[in-house]
Amino acid sequence: MVRSLALTLLLVGCAPHSAAPTAGSLEEVRGVVRDAYSGAPVAGARVTERREGVTTLTDARGRFTLALSEGPHRLQLDAEGYHPGERVRATSGAPIDAAVFPLAPDDATIARHLDAVAVRVPDAVRDRPVTGDLGAAVWAHHDAPRLPETIRVWRAAGTALQPRSPAFADRSCDPAAVVEELPFEEYVKGVIPHEWIPSWHPEALRAGAIAARSYAASHALGGGRWDCADVDDGTVTQVYRDDRAEPTSAAVDATRGQLVVRDGNVVRAEYSAENGGRTEHDVDDPTCEGTERFGHGRGMCQWGTQRWAIGECANPPCDFGAFGAEPKTHTWMVEHYFPGAVVGGGPHEVEPCETLGPDGGVLEESGPCFEAFGPGEYWRFEDFGHGGSLTWTNAFASETPSNWSRFSLFFAEPGRYRVEVYVEPGFGGHTAIDYEITHAGGVARVALDQRAASGWVSLGEHDFDDAGEVRVNDHTAAPLDDDRRIVLDAVRLTRLDGMAGDGGVPRGVGGGARELRGGGGLGGCAAAGRSRAPLWPLALLVLVWRARSRARPARVTTRWR
């Protein structure tokens, strides 16, 4: 009786997320494979889902169908005369329109493709000066630029999940906007095959990867092109699609994390198809001499990267002058097109955000887990505070933030933690600072009066799984007075006994803090990620066990130990 009841209780808990697909759980993934430049369907292309070992060939109209388990899939695409490629995040929703890239497109085809993506909408007035430099104050506080782990992409062209999203990203955040947060390097892999040409020389592709990565990073580190998104997937910023090509993905991997850096600042590395013999920023480009400028003409010339890589020019005979006729490396090209800049960053220079130990720990704002976003001129740094430094900015009245910051939290063990922030005694100014704590149950908002705070102040107790976030925005609806300082200093996480299971609603907030909004609940099965079975089956099992133990203590105790 006890054993069968225990089995029943375990069965009603969460089923493993990694269970092998059964015939009943298969879904139909359909689509068409097209030539990336002509749009013509590609017959006989092999479409493979390697993880599940399922493959098929496209028919005469380029169509395919695969029976796969539920969830997004990464499809391998192979076709004669085309670069091997991938289609990421394929689902059973709307039919997939996948693209493959020709091995040897002619110059006219390349020109038509680059012309189609060259025209960009001028950035709004909130953009930086034409030098493209991100505010120096942000990076003066760190040893080297650090690439964000993710980037928010406005899918204005639609996705398989919501293909009927707005067709064009405008200058405001449309409530119907589809914004996806993608891993940064994966995002760059979806840009380069559409902004450069996969058949070009590897050095040209590497130069393009660094420029595209820097252009996107400058938007992300500056708080985003829009409040809701850092970039879009069209020509307002740069084109992104879910299609990949093997040569361009290799170029992104070879330059992983590398950025265009000038005086410690990330350069907004613009580029256009043809810049003519001299760019808009007065950079000499003999490889493009005699060509008609197409695009804004600023920064890197896309055609120029290929010509420098192979040592040719648009209109022979070529006169490379002091630059020399020998083929150039991607580093040379970047530093040529962006005078005074160097190629910086890379994985060897990026300090990872540490994982908190089983009992929690302290994270300093001078460390890699803290990031500050928005115009650099509004950030200030002091050589006092917890750990010997602190960061601050001013609050302002607005519906949306201009500057904001976050601590990324990674936990060695899930559990319940007390979250505290450090406020330098006598230095906090604003009386209604809005903290957002992302935890396992959702997002909790806590308002803190920093003027009344001194030292460590609790923001409540929250349940976390393997990750979370503490965010502070600079906008407020509260009345502003003369002292608007918002202080960002250390964050302390202290492990408490067990999981309380109330979804992370703050408890024990003090020192001028008050709860604004709680999170959600933790009960039930997780839809993805770490499996968290409800606690009630285990508790009921213990009660039944204890009841049986009282009836037949010797036998039951012996059996279940």
How many distinct helices? 10
Uncertain stretches of 5 or more adjacent residues: 1-23, 119-144, 160-169, 499-506, 517-538, 541-561
Trace the largest sheet across and list its strands: 18-22-27-24-25-31
Main beta sheet: 6 strands, antiparallel
Q: What integer value in Å does the Rg equal?
A: 27 Å
Whole-number total of structural domains: 4
Structural class: alpha+beta
Description:
This protein has 4 domains: 30-100, Carboxypeptidase-like, regulatory domain (Immunoglobulin-like, Sandwich), CATH 2.60.40; 107-345, no CATH class; 360-517, Jelly Rolls (Sandwich), CATH 2.60.120; 534-561, no CATH class. A hairpin with a 2-residue loop joins strand 24 (433-439) and strand 25. It is α+β, with helices and mostly antiparallel strands and 561 residues long. The chain has a 6-stranded antiparallel β-sheet, with no helix packed on it. The protein is built from 10 helices and 31 strands.
Write the layout of secondary structure elements.
Elements: H1 2-11, E1 26-35, E2 46-49, E3 54-57, E4 63-69, E5 73-78, E6 85-90, E7 96-100, H2 107-118, H3 136-140, E8 150-154, E9 179-183, H4 184-195, H5 202-221, E10 231-232, E11 243-245, H6 246-254, E12 258-262, E13 265-266, E14 271-272, E15 300-301, H7 302-310, H8 330-337, E16 342-345, E17 360-363, E18 370-373, E19 380-382, E20 390-394, E21 396-397, E22 404-410, E23 415-423, E24 433-439, E25 442-448, E26 455-464, E27 467-473, E28 475-476, E29 485-488, E30 491-495, E31 513-517, H9 536-551, H10 553-560
Parallel strand pairs: 1-7, 8-10, 14-15, 21-28
Antiparallel strand pairs: 1-4, 2-3, 2-5, 5-6, 6-11, 8-9, 12-13, 12-16, 17-30, 18-22, 19-20, 20-29, 22-27, 23-26, 23-30, 24-25, 24-27, 25-31
